[in-house]
Amino acid sequence: MVGRQEGIGMTGGIVVVMGVSGSGKTTIGERLGAACGVHFGDADRLHPPANVAKMAAGTPLTDEDRWPWLHAVLAWMNDHADRTPRTELGVELGVAAVVGCSALKRKYRDLLRTASCPVRFAYLKGDRRTLATRLHRRQGHFFPEQLLAAQLADLEEPAPDENPVVVSIGARPDAVVEQIVAGLRDAARPVDPRRARPTGSA
Prior knowledge:
Layout: E1 13-18, H1 25-36, E2 39-42, H2 49-56, H3 63-79, H4 88-93, E3 95-100, H5 106-112, E4 119-125, H6 128-137, H7 148-154, E5 165-168, H8 173-185
Parallel strand pairs: 1-3, 1-4, 2-3, 4-5
């Protein structure tokens, strides 16, 4: 099944704020969700205990570790696909919910694109030094700084045919959110579903 990715601007769309750890998915996702008057979901909270323990021990996750988690994220997206936004901006953009998820690989994003609503990815792009500095300063999170290299190795940046909104993490959070909103407003470039066909399956 190919998910609907015609672009936000339709009723019931979900924005996936993606990127490696330290890119600011939670900070940006929470602010975007608040601006749109919709719920923000942190995909990190959907990891099974075994994944959390593995990462906390400094061991990178494999595809086999991530598939059950990604299916949980997909289920969350489907559960929130029919929510009604509570702000004019949310209504304008047609956003039903926002979720922060690393979505590192194309095949992971292909799975999330099978959601029952339009899906748009907002990619928080950052350089290794900035990301490492942020992780070093972060407190109380199970993801250790030494796993950043593994995530960057796994990262497959979204291709143009995925119609992503790509934003640099170097700007202040409010400016990043404004840039994402501007990208979401550009719903005039629909993705041809024949070019967004999943490349892998769970």
